[in-house]
């Protein structure tokens, strides 16, 4: 059997740009590739690699089908994708030839700024490629302007304000991306409602099968073919609940149904729902309903 080569690991931006046949970065901790001017990367197309820095890609004129959950949906807008350090990347043929920008920046650039602590709040760095951000024409103009501002700053002579300005511009780019993702959740509500319906069907099946323990967010997200963070952010926008809260709600509804329609003991119900210990079930049920399972059963009767 032919051995699968290990991924290439890039610890700094300069090494990656060199292998992409791109000019050296103007700043050691941040680089902006403008595919309107530079075409490169073909020699790493199809190769797997990991980067030790952040990557934000913006494709101006993306057209085609993108998978959401179990279905495919057509888009005519540009798109953005976000990657955190130490995630596995495979550069596609499309990425090496489309017009747009790719911004790379190292964690050291933002480490001594509030953004260094807050960047984990931007959940889209944990989204999958099939959960990219799709932009309207108006949004594309905003994003293009932000990338152009970063390009202008990188072209300026470095001074004591350069890093402050660059970090501020990156943070503004992330905040606009956050706003546009929230819009995407809302405008594609029908798509996401279908995803929620599929999630509930899966959870009901898991509770009925009485095996495999309590469903987890990663398990459900894998079944729906979305990332756990995307699932939670989408649910938070549409329902006000995280994915974990949604699972707990469905679990408690199933418990109420079983408590009110069967003579199973509380312990038997707990094991049936996937709990290893009845005490854990009692604790969750009381936290969710302000009643113990036995008190709920008595009040129902």
UniProtKB/TrEMBL annotation:
- Gene3D superfamilies documented for this protein: Homeodomain-like
Pfam families reported in the protein's UniProt record: HTH_18
Asked whether the keyword DNA repair is assigned, the reply is: no
Give the Gene Ontology MF terms in alphabetical order: DNA-binding transcription factor activity; sequence-specific DNA binding
Q: Which InterPro entries match?
A: Homeodomain-like_sf, HTH_AraC, Tscrpt_reg_AraC-type_HTH
Q: List the SUPFAM superfamilies.
A: Homeodomain-like (SSF46689)
Q: Which UniProt keywords apply?
A: DNA-binding, Transcription, Transcription regulation
Annotated HTH araC/xylS-type domain ranges read 197-299
- Record's PANTHER family? ARAC-FAMILY TRANSCRIPTIONAL REGULATOR, TRANSCRIPTIONAL REGULATORY PROTEIN
- What is the protein name for this chain? AraC-type DNA-binding protein
Q: Which organism does this record belong to?
A: Chitinophaga filiformis (Myxococcus filiformis)
Q: What is the lineage of its organism?
A: Bacteria, Pseudomonadati, Bacteroidota, Chitinophagia, Chitinophagales
């Amino acid at each position: 059997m032919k051995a699968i080569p290990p991924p290439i690991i890039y610890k700094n931006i300069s090494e990656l740009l060199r292998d992409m046949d791109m000019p050296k970065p103007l700043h050691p901790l941040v680089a902006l590739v403008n595919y309107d001017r530079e075409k490169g990367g073909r020699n790493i197309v199809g190769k797997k690699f990991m980067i030790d820095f952040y990557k934000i890609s913006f494709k101006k004129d993306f057209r085609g089908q993108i998978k959401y959950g179990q279905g495919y949906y057509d888009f005519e807008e540009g798109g953005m994708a976000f990657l955190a350090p130490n995630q596995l990347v495979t550069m596609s043929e499309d990425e090496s030839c489309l017009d747009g920008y790719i911004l790379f920046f190292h964690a050291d650039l933002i480490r001594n700024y509030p953004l260094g602590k807050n960047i984990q709040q931007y959940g889209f760095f944990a989204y999958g490629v099939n959960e990219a951000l799709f932009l309207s024409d108006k949004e594309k103009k905003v994003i293009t302007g932000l990338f152009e501002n970063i390009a202008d700053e990188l072209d300026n002579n470095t001074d004591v304000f350069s890093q402050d300005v660059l970090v501020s511009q990156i943070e503004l780019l992330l905040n606009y991306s956050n706003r546009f993702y929230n819009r995407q959740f809302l405008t594609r509500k029908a798509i996401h409602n279908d995803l929620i319906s599929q999630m509930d069907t899966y959870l009901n099946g898991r509770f009925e099968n009485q095996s495999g323990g309590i469903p987890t967010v990663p398990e459900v997200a894998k079944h729906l073919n979305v990332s756990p963070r995307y699932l939670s952010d989408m649910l938070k926008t549409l329902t006000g609940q995280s994915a974990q809260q949604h699972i707990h709600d469905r679990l408690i509804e199933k418990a109420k149904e079983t408590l009110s329609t069967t003579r199973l003991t509380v312990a038997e119900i707990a094991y049936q729902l996937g709990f290893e210990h009845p005490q854990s079930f009692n604790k969750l049920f009381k936290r969710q309903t302000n009643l113990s399972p036995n008190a709920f059963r008595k009040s129902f009767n």
